[in-house]
Specification:
The chain is built from 20 helices and 13 strands. By secondary structure, it is α+β, with helices and mostly antiparallel strands. The longest helix is centred in the middle third of the chain and has 25 residues.
Length: 626
């Protein structure tokens, strides 16, 4: 007679017991193993660095973990701990290379456990983690991130800084064994010497000198090995927009560019692209800190959007990137959430001015009207032209002034910035310039005082991309040029103009009204405080001067816990946060021609021929702002 568990009438094992016996779900193994490696790595480092840790209750657990062999093996414990910490993030992201390294490191730690301490429990723990890795190896299939050998220098700088910091902790972790009273300079010298295997000026009683020396030598060797590996491994270039991709995108924009005001920004050449299987739609993106960041709506036929979105998600899964979309429209957000199961959150509003309805008359426009008239009386004039109408000298002056007046070390902008002015393929873009002739003016750009650059938005619209002005010019240059551009728009056959994007515009607008609740007032107060650095409130108020209509824009994300990471990646992409090498080192980097990403998922659609976009020459239009 067969026995039954818990009175199960069918004789079957209960579902909870079956789940326990079958182990963790496959999709939960990567974060589980990554977390385990993080804990083990930290305990290994603590066991190798701190003498008192060896006599604590926690060390009773640490001694049986892979790598924490014994006090005489402190150097190996530290090395194993650092390696496990380096591998943990890659394991959580399902990286294949991290899996291979962990499969090699865990048996090595287990063998060391048994050889030095005869620890059966340590071997069993290593075997358990290794068993999970081998059983669920199909979960660790993510391709490596785009990389270059230049990252070897970044690794050397970061690892050296970390090794020096950890080395100072090691040197000071034996205060009762120190001989004399070494200064901070002596301690730092001892660490630097120890990283390269040379005895330093600090001395210890007993065998502590050997422990410290081997530990510092292990850190130095680890820094050298990881740097050499990064320097000599095969290079995988970062994805870039190829000429064929750009041609295909221009063809799609010529047919469907009027749907989204951010469409032309897909032509940024620091983006990559995936096409739908039919080639009728595309999604452009950039990978920043492990986030696959798209901007705006997909390009092309709406009916083909799902195919391009599917290719985008396949690419994100292939590399274990976090998918996100910044600044898509309401229609785009609905398609993204329906096709992918992602979530959407309103990010802000885009200010759009209908040219036919714009007028400087009326009380609402009094401030703008008075400012424009005052600037005109000071002798400023404006010109609004297509880029193709500028002479080479004028174009060179515009480019030089744009670079000189930028005001920051890095070019800012991603979702609503093109990143270039006067490219041969951008002849349809519009340049608005402000001029003033002054006696004794020594500016290298002549009478040029301010610039605004607009990109096409379909056949009857344009979107503001760039605003730059001479800091010595009178205030109000931006208002002057926007009014001039709107006045010249009918002659350019422009019916709608997209201005700046105002983040959290609705919260700012509702929070300043009578009857706003306490939560909304607190949220508005926080936004006003952050505006000291990010121009949140000032940009909203500037846009509101022109009485636009507001179109909401959304951020699309996978889970709420991804939002901080997506926000940080977006700030990097927009240029507010820079994690690059110092400018002096950056100038030493040799120039290379960008090469396309070779991953199969990135080459989504066929590259069809694009219709030639030629600008019709026209005589210069000089507009005196009304």
């Amino acid at each position: 007679m067969s026995s039954r568990i818990d009175g199960d009438k069918s004789g079957q094992v209960p579902s909870k017991a079956r789940r326990f016996l079958s182990g963790p779900r496959p999709e939960s193994v990567p974060p589980l193993v990554g977390t385990a490696c993080t804990v083990v790595g930290l305990l290994d480092i603590a066991a190798g660095v701190f003498p008192r840790f060896r006599h604590s209750r926690v060390h009773a657990l640490a001694e049986v973990l892979p790598g924490a062999m014994s006090p005489v093996a402190a150097a190996l414990a530290i090395s194993a701990g650092v390696l496990l910490l380096l591998l943990a993030h890659g394991l959580k992201r399902r990286k294949r290379r991290a899996w291979r390294a962990a499969v090699v490191l865990l048996p090595a730690g287990a063998v060391a456990q048994f050889t030095y301490r005869h620890s059966i429990l340590g071997v069993l723990i290593a075997a358990a983690i290794l068993g999970l890795l081998l059983r669920h190896q199909s979960e660790f299939d993510a391709l490596p991130d785009p990389r270059s050998r230049w990252k070897a220098l970044a690794n050397f700088v970061l690892m050296s800084a970390g090794s020096i910091g950890l080395g100072l902790v090691i040197v000071n972790s034996h205060p009762h064994r120190l001989v004399g009273d070494p200064s901070i300079a002596d301690q730092l010298t001892h660490v630097v010497y120890g990283l390269v295997g040379v005895e330093g000026p600090v001395d210890y009683a007993g065998r502590v000198s050997w422990t410290v020396g081997y530990s510092l030598g292990a850190l130095g060797m680890l820094t050298a090995l990881t740097t050499v590996y990064l320097a000599f491994r095969p290079e995988h270039p970062a994805a870039r927009l190829t000429p064929a991709d750009e041609t295909h995108l221009r063809d799609l924009l010529a047919k469907h560019g009027g749907r989204d005001s951010l469409g032309h920004f897909a032509l940024r050449r620091d983006k990559a692209v995936v096409f739908s299987p039919s080639g009728k739609a595309a999604v452009t993106y950039r990978v920043v800190s492990g986030v696959m960041l798209a901007s705006g709506d997909p390009i092309g036929d709406v009916e083909a959007w799902p195919g391009a979105i599917e290719r985008f998600m396949e690419e994100a899964r292939a590399h274990s990137w976090t998918p996100a979309v910044m600044g898509c429209s309401e229609t785009g957000g609905e398609v993204w959430t329906r096709e992918t199961g992602l979530d959407a959150l309103e990010l802000g509003d885009e200010a759009i001015v209908d040219v036919a309805d714009f007028s400087l008359s009326g009380r609402a426009m009094r401030n703008v009207r008075q400012m424009v008239k005052r600037i005109e009386r000071n002798g400023y004039t404006t010109k609004v032209r297509r880029v193709s109408e500028l002479t080479p000298e004028e174009l060179a002056a515009v480019r030089g002034a744009s670079e000189a007046w930028r005001g920051t070390d890095t070019e800012r902008g991603f979702s609503m910035a093109l990143g270039r002015v006067g490219d041969p393929g951008d002849g349809d873009c519009v340049i608005a310039t402000a001029h003033r002739v002054e006696e004794g003016d020594t500016s290298p750009f002549g009478d040029l005082k301010a610039i605004q650059h607009f990109v096409p938005w379909g056949r009857d619209g344009m979107s503001l991309e760039l605003m730059r002005r001479d800091r010595a010019a009178d205030p109000g240059m931006n208002e002057l040029l926007i009014v001039a551009a709107l006045a010249a728009a009918p002659g350019l056959k422009i019916e709608r103009v997209s201005l700046n994007f105002a983040m959290f515009r609705s919260a700012l607008a509702r929070g300043e009204k009578i009857g706003a609740g306490p939560v909304l007032r607190i949220w508005r107060g926080l936004l006003v405080f952050l505006s000291r650095w990010f121009q949140i409130e000032s940009l909203y108020k500037f846009n509101a001067k022109f009485q636009p209509r507001w179109e909401p824009r959304f951020v699309v994300f996978r889970t709420t816990r991804d939002l901080p990471r997506i926000g940080f990646a977006a700030m990097q992409a927009e240029g507010f946060v820079t994690l690059a090498m110092p400018r002096l080192l950056g100038r030493l980097r040799p120039a290379r021609q960008p090469r396309p990403c070779q991953h199969p998922a990135a080459r989504g659609g066929a590259d069809g021929p694009a219709a030639a976009r030629t600008a019709v020459p026209a005589k210069e239009r000089e507009v005196q702002a009304a």
